[in-house]
Amino acid sequence: MRSNHALVLAVLGSTLCACTTASEEYPSLAMRDAERVAGTMQPAAPAPYVPPPTAPAVLERLDQLAGEASSAHQAFLAAAPQARSAVAAARGEGPGADSWARAQVAVSGLEASRGKAMIALADLDRLYVDAAVEGDELDRIGAARDRVATQVAEQNATIDGMLSELR
């Protein structure tokens, strides 16, 4: 029975080979012009994003932080002339001198005022990041944050200048 199956397969295989001749040409498998993609595709212009308005609670917190930073800056500006005088009096003195110690205390008072402004700046940074993550409007928060950052930078420069005079 097995030999009959093998015989049938051999006969069928030989008849299939007889279907083609060496002179026949087969169609090309290359891509035809009709199969090529032509033209360009332009994406649709996205609609501009309009952020939602800032929540009233955030605006209230923003005003509170800006007020805290402003009062800390005013305290810094009020204490700066006294600290400058103390630093000028301690110029040329070394650690351990009374005038040098008074100047250090005065500069420390300025650093305390700056610390309050820096805390407000850190909280403003948090408000800014939260609003950015939520996709909220950033202009008002960013403006307050930039204003406080500028004040803190000025305070840093003042303190650094005084400390360099004490060295």
How far the N terminus sits from the C terminus, by CA atoms, comes to 110 Å
| Rg over C-alpha atoms, rounded to the nearest angstrom | 41 Å
* Total beta strand runs: 0
Largest sheet: none
Q: Write the H/E string, N to C.
A: HHHH
Helix coverage percent of residues?
55-70%
What is the molecular shape? elongated
Helices, by number, come to 4
Question: Which segments are poorly predicted (pLDDT under 50) over 5 or more consecutive residues?
Answer: none
Sheet-strand content, in percent, reads under 5%
Structural class estimated from helices and strands: mainly alpha
Averaged pLDDT: 86
Account of the 3D structure:
The chain has a domain at 64-89 and 108-166. The protein is elongated. The chain is mainly α and 167 residues long. Helix 2 (56-90) packs antiparallel against helix 3 (98-134), helix 2 packs parallel to helix 4 (139-166) and helix 3 packs antiparallel against helix 4. The mean pLDDT is 86. The termini are far apart. 69% of the residues lie in helices and 0% in strands. It has helices spanning 2-17, 56-90, 98-134, 139-166. The protein contains four helices and no strands.
How does the SSE layout of this entry go?
Elements: H1 2-17, H2 56-90, H3 98-134, H4 139-166
Helix pairs in contact: 2-3, 2-4, 3-4
